[in-house]
Write a structure and sequence with these properties.
The complex is a heterodimer of chains A (about 475) and B (about 100). Chain A is an alpha/beta fold and about 475 residues long. Chain A has three domains: about 190 residues, FAD/NAD(P)-binding domain (3-Layer(bba) Sandwich); about 140 residues, 3-Layer(bba) Sandwich (FAD/NAD(P)-binding domain), CATH 3.50.50; about 70 residues, BFD-like [2Fe-2S]-binding domain (Arc Repressor Mutant, subunit A), CATH 1.10.10. In chain A, a hairpin with a 2-residue loop joins strand 5 and strand 6. The longest helix of chain A has 19 residues. The radius of gyration of chain A is 22 Å and the shape is globular. Chain B has about 100 residues and is mainly beta. Chain B has a single domain, classed as Ubiquitin-like (UB roll), CATH 3.10.20. Chain B contains one helix and eight strands, in the order E-E-E-H-E-E-E-E-E. In chain B, strands 3-2-8-6-7 form a five-stranded mixed beta sheet, with helices on one face. A two-stranded antiparallel sheet of chain B has the order 4-5. In chain B, strand 6 and strand 7 form a beta hairpin. Classes of the chains: A alpha/beta (about 475), B mainly beta (about 100). Chains A and B meet through strand 8, helix 5 and strand 9 of A and strand 1, helix 1 and strand 5 of B.
Amino acid sequence: MSTAPQRDTYDVVVIGAGPAGLAATSTTASAGLSTLLLDENAGPGGQVWRGIASTPVKSEAVLGADYWSGTEIAKAARDSGAEITHRATVWSLDRNLELGISIGGGSAFVKAKRVIIATGALERPFPIPGWTLPGVMTAGAAQTMLKSSGLVPNGRTVIAGQGPLLWLLAAQILRLGGRIDRVLDTTPRANYFAALPHAFAFMTSPYFTKGLSMMREVKAKVPVVKGVTELSASGDDQLASVSYVAGGKRETLGADLLLLHQGVVPNVNLAMAAGVEHRWDELQLCWSPVLDNNGGSSVEGIAIAGDGAGIGGAQAAVWRGRIAARAAVTALAPDAAAKLPSLASLHGELKRAERGRLFLDTLFQPARQFRIPTGDTIVCRCEEITAQDVRESVAIGATGPNQLKAYRRTGMGPCQGRLCGLTVTELMAEARGKTPQEIGYYRLRAPVKPIMLSELAALPKNEEAVKAVVRG
Amino acid sequence: MFKRANGDARRSVTIHVEGKAVTAREGDSVSAALLASGLDVRRATAVSGAKRLPYCMMGVCFDCLVTIDGVGNRQGCLVPVADGMQIEIQKGKREIGR
């Protein structure tokens, strides 16, 4: 499975084997285009369908119908004739559509006529005091372990935050015999009113009944505290307790595990490093790529599908994948495109899948105090830089995230800003009285994931490249 | 912190954590196997020596960094376990040559 690419060039290279990437792959490969699907994980599914081909959790009721809907789409990709490589890290993509790929400790370059980036989302940073302590993880992390290894919490467990995934995870943990002591809901009360005008679309979407029944299932078994306005974790090199304020009252409870979640945001690193233009999304509070109707980005030949194109959920991701793939087929093999479903019908499906999203985005927009920390709360986990450090740097002249690197090394650790970038942008914007769009983001460059120097050194070199560095 | 749910029928795989044999299951990531082992598998950061455990389990946070078969700074959450794998917990900065 983890072998070097079989060819030097492909019609289409798809990056990421989640809902969007799998759907795109089966569309382009079935249309006869040479297609390479690259994915960092050991098997298909991305995060939402993680372990779809290998999970030890066989009971359909535990993971739910939405999870198992991935089986068919993963199978279609596998049977499509595409070359599918797992445990492959794409560390470079440039404007010439050349990709640097690390597989099994060695690197190779391939060229594509079209690239579809389907690198999905990651969980929004949740920078509260103590969030770096062992025993504090994301809800998604717990869900990953549940899906791929059948692992569930068995110590004193608190789940805190907001959004659909939080409730889904809680329900799955309980169904599988895991332990949850309390759910702390941080949804700001004002959001309920703000979301009201969008409620009708949501109530007529499939999210509504599913969401309600999941919340009921969890509330029947676990105490749920609503309106949490402050949250912190403490302990000596290990989580010992979680402290929170709700309705003006502070409470502290002992805990072995705290699972945090306040929504997901596009995973922008590869697309930004390729030069794709992004803009600050005022509703989703994150960077989203600037795209045309079919997912085409500001870089010719690069399309973005799935949650990386702006958060839309798994079903929307599938349709976005098909739309981006159809656009690639139209460009490279117009005859084959004629046999595919029309763009209008695909856009109709996408629109249906996106129904209710505005309501969710408004209701679950995280509160300011959980996005923009203060004092000695860590902002950059890698370099261990606090909110106060960032504010002091602004006070002595740091103007934006890129200058801040020189002051404090934020974003220069191994995670390359994935866990601090949004916080740094919003914090600096607030400190300087500017908008996040004006403040901007880290300038991202290849390699977008760390690779070994020996991998670069072992790459084939042409005479020109050798001449450029040889002395004399 | 975590336990295995009932009914997991996957094959057992033995890995060695700081020389100690640990039973994992085929398909576990190194990080999942470490968290399920019940051992103290906290790493110490390179910057301050603070203790950490994996945070995201999906390849973005790098808090799962671990030495696997002598190669340091691997993302344990992205590497599946294999029989005989030698795992060392990283304590502070990476050492030269590994």
